[in-house]
Write a structure and sequence with these properties.
single chain; alpha+beta; 2 domains; six-stranded mixed sheet; four-stranded antiparallel sheet; 2 helices; 15% helix
Length: 150
C-alpha cells in the first residue's frame, strides 16, 4: 500500500469537540498502548498512529489527522479475559493485592477483577478461593498510578 493512501493519525481530540467521525478502529487493551503503529479500520482503511510517546487510548477516544479533516473513533475490542469474583469484597481485595504484586494489567471494579488469560495466575486466584470466568469482552485495565488520561 502506498504512503499516500495511509491516514496518519497524529493527535487525540479533546472530548468536548464535535469532531466528525469518518472511521472506527477497534483495538485490544495492548494495542491501545501503541503510539506508533499501522492498523486497519473496520471500514478497511489503513491508518498509522503517530501519537506522542506514552499515549494510552481509551474506549471512545477520537483521533484526528494533522489537518483535523478525518476523525477515527477508538472502540475497545472484545478479547479473551479472566473475570475474577469473590464471595466477599475482602476476597476480591486480596486477589487484587496479589495480582498487583505481579504487575499485570488489571481492570478493577467493585464487583470483579479482570485480567488477560494466564494459567499461573489463574491457579493462584483459585487457591485464594476466588471464582474465575473466561470471557471475551472489552478489557479496560487501570492506567497506573503514574499515568493519566489526557
Amino acid at each position: 500500500m502506498s504512503a499516500e493512501l495511509l491516514i496518519r493519525l497524529t493527535h487525540r481530540q479533546p472530548s468536548h469537540t464535535n469532531t466528525q467521525v469518518s472511521f472506527t478502529l477497534t483495538l485490544t487493551a495492548e494495542e491501545r498502548t501503541r503510539s506508533r503503529y499501522r492498523f486497519e479500520t473496520l471500514e478497511g482503511k489503513a491508518v498509522f498512529l503517530r501519537l506522542p510517546r506514552g499515549t494510552i487510548l481509551q474506549d471512545g477516544d477520537i483521533l484526528a489527522d494533522e489537518t483535523n479533516s478525518i476523525g477515527v473513533k477508538i472502540i475497545a475490542k472484545p478479547e479473551p479475559v479472566l473475570t475474577v469474583t469473590g464471595k466477599t469484597s475482602l476476597d476480591l481485595l486480596r486477589g487484587a493485592y496479589h495480582l498487583g504484586n505481579r504487575h499485570v494489567p488489571l481492570e478493577i471494579t467493585p464487583s470483579y477483577l479482570r485480567l488477560a488469560p494466564d494459567s499461573v495466575l489463574r491457579s493462584m486466584l483459585l487457591q485464594l478461593g476466588l471464582e474465575i470466568t473466561e470471557e471475551i469482552v472489552p478489557f479496560h485495565p487501570e492506567l497506573g498510578a503514574y499515568r493519566h488520561h489526557e
